[in-house]
Amino acid sequence: MAVSGNSEQGAEGGLVRSASNVLGLAIAGFVGALNVIGLSSGELQAVLRNEESSAALISVPMFVALCTALGSLAVTQSAEVPWIYAVGIVAGFLSGFGFTTALTPVPGATVDSAWAIGIALAATAFLLLLLGLARTVFLRSRDAGDDRKRIPWKIVLISCSVIALSSSVWAAARVEVRSQVSATYPQLAADIRTENGVSELSMQIEAAKLKNGDQVRFTVQGYPRSGKGCGTAWEGKCIEQLCHDKSDSDPCSFIGTGIINSDSLGRVKQKIATPFSPRDFKLLVVEAYACEMVKFTYREGGEEKSYRDCKSWNKQAILYLYVAGQ
Fold first, then answer.
1. Does domain 187-322 bear CATH number 1.10.287?
2. Among 28, 12, 121, which Cα is nearest to 69's?
3. At residue 35, does pLDDT exceed 60?
4. Could you state, in order of their start, the residue ranges of all structural domains in the chain?
5. What is the pLDDT of residue 125?
6. In the predicted model, is pLDDT for residue 68 greater than 80?
7. Which residue has the higher pLDDT, 281 or 213?
8. Contact (Cβ atoms closer than 8 angstroms) between residue 79 and residue 154
């Protein structure tokens, strides 16, 4: 009797150790995958701060992956499932990829196809499971036994666990990209140096994690010394409105403008210098915009045409620099 008790305790201990190993491997795999895609601890904090609801979505497939991994320990080696049920279950888990893609949209990328793929796979899974149930009922009604083409339950559950874990990693990558893209603003620094009556504006423009094809555009405008300006109150709303009047009556003059394309890693880092006459301007307005390039279509003469341009100008950095009098 004592031997039997020790045997049962050993079996229970072995099951606990196996469960601990599976959970450890699953969590280590998830963390390792996040490190591979470059999600550092600082970026993880930004994701949780900016994308709280989407970050919670990541935990759903992760929890499912852990449950299916533990479920594979509960079934015996001899436990099998008809092949049509196995295919249906796997298709259902694969539909998670489509749904997580659709629920974690990335700026500039469409999610219509993701919804279609997710719904199609979910419908396929439902039909296969329904067909499998009808087939089982049919075979038993004819006393033909169950379907002989079977797949071990362990293989099915482990496959589903891997799919769910991959879906969680995919969702984490998309949430991180969306968080960084949504918070991508250009960084702008500038100063003015004057020598022998000629001034030079030196600028440094930086941006990171831009989408492929996105740009940073900048403009430099000068407010004339002859303008009324803001009197002695060079601050607040008045100064913010200078050089932003797009009508012909705008007294400001363009000193420089340009477009900087991002590199293959989505980064922009550029130093720019341009001379100007300090006698002509009392204030310089330096602006930089992060442009999300999108495709616009229109019809002309019955023919559909397209062009690429900035979707919005709300991601900007502006500096107002006072020019010392000469």
1. no
2. 28
3. no
4. 2-182, 187-322
5. 92
6. yes
7. 281
8. yes
For 2-14, how does the pLDDT look when each residue is reduced to its tens digit (9 = 90+)?
444 454 444 445 5
Confidence of residue 1 (pLDDT cuts 50, 70, 90): very low
Rounded-to-integer distance, Cα 93 and Cα 324, Å: 67
pLDDT at 111: 64
Find the mean pLDDT for residues 187-197: 86
Whether the CB-CB separation of 172 and 54 falls below 8 Å is answered with no
Interatomic CA distance for residues 108 and 113, integer angstroms: 14
3-state secondary structure the chain: CHHHHHHHHHHHHHHHHHHHHHHHHHHHHHHHHHHHCCCCHHHHHHHHHHCHHHHHHHHHHHHHHHHHHHHHHHCCCCCEEEHHHHHHHHHHHHHHHHHHHHHCCCCCCCCHHHHHHHHHHHHHHHHHHHHHHHHHHHHHHCCCCCCCCEEEHHHHHHHHHHHHHHHHHHHHHHHHHHHHHHCCCCEEEEEEEEECCEEEEEEEEEECCCCCCCEEEEEEEEEECCCCCCCCCCCHHHHHHCCCCCCCCCCCEEEEEEEEECCCCCCEEEEEEEEECCCCEEEEEEEEEEECEEEEEEEECCEEEEEEEECCCCCEEEEEEECCCC
pLDDT number for residue 122 = 93
Long-range CB pairs of 29-38 (<8 Å, 24+ gap) are 29/165, 30/62, 30/165, 30/168, 30/169, 33/169, 34/169, 34/172, 37/169, 37/172, 37/173, 37/176
Q: Please say if the pLDDT value at position 173 is more than 90.
A: no
Residue type, 54: S
Residue with tokens 């600028």: 203
In percent, how much of the chain has pLDDT > 90? 10
Report angle CA 152, 121, 108 to the nearest 5 degrees. Answer: 130
